[in-house]
Amino acid sequence: MSWDDFKSMPDKTKDVTFRSSNSKHFYAILRFGKKYKNVEGGKNLAMMAIKVFQKHMEREIEVLNADTKIQNEILIGDKNIYDNVIEHIKDVKLHKNTVIGREILQTASPDFFLNMMPKDLERWKADNMKWLCDNFGENCLYSVLHKDEKTWHIHSLIVPKFIDKKGNEILSNTRYFDGLGRFAEYQTNYALHMQQYFKCLNRGVKHSKAKHLSIKQYYTLINQNLNEKDISQVLAKAKNSELLEIKIKAIEKTLQVYKNYNSKNERMKETAILESKGLLKEIEKLKGEKETYKEAISYISQVYKVPQYVVNECVREVEHINEREK
After folding, report:
1. 220 within 8 A of 300, measured Cβ to Cβ
2. pTM of the predicted model, to two decimals?
3. Are 143 and 132 in contact (CB under 8 A)?
């Protein structure tokens, strides 16, 4: 199926579409990530962090869930991110609270990319690059398309260099990013831009309070196992220790299913789909005793050192696996 098929649809780009979080439509996803900022007492802290950014983006270090057989594609700049930033700001006087750069992520709903024709993938890349250039110009020093993970996505680094009234080069993060209202404007603007060709793409829910799992939280959660000694200590203090133990172990099982489903290994994914079917009834039983369920979530949150909503989000994902597969 080609995206040309959508060209006959009515043009609604003047009023960006807002969909509820429960709909089955595709989303144009724009995220504003980490700020690379100097802090008092942290000499060259921002540049050290940019060096780490380079290692991750260019796969100079091992990256979990990345397929080493797949080559990523640099769209703007080159692999020498650190050196290019140094060159870009060489005439700028840096202060202790200067924001040197900011990450941006552009992607879409995972199913959007399924069976997409090559020419449409090229158009998606080109439209993303045009949006970046229109909004950030030469201050977008680097963009890379990561194809080696489950869903295609573009990472970019914005270094906000401007000329002030005196003709001096300065860095001013606030000219681009000066509050939540501006972020919302960017997201609406991005959705409008992508809808010009891909009319099936929608903006996310405006003013949504939905929280998103960070990569760090996700990896922390799926790459640990519960310690039996810790479990026994918690159970000793619980009023209904037997029920709590059942819930803790069932939640851990859902996390393992979530991990397998997101794996590159097709056999593990198939196993996860089968296991998720059996887990649906178990999850409902889990939530029957609300207080004990909350206690189990709280315990896992403490052990893994991630917020409780992260654990809940993974459980919800397992509940939705069967629906997505259908």
Report:
1. no
2. 0.62
3. yes
Give strand ranges (E) for the chain: 26-37, 73-76, 99-108, 140-146, 153-158, 161-163, 169-171, 201-202
Tokens of residue 287, six digits:
């939530």
CB 146 within 8 Å of CB 155? yes
Give the pLDDT of residue 290: 74
Instruction: With a cut of 50, list the residues of the chain below it in pLDDT.
Output: 1-24, 41, 209-213, 215
Residue 48 has a pLDDT of: 87
pLDDT at 5: 37
Residue type, 42: G
Q: Work out the burial of residue 207: count CB atoms within 10 Å of its CB; fewer than 13 is exposed, 13-18 middle, 19 or more buried.
A: exposed
Strand bridging mode 73-76 / 140-146:
antiparallel
CB 292 within 8 A of CB 241: no
Here the tokens at position 293 are 């369920």
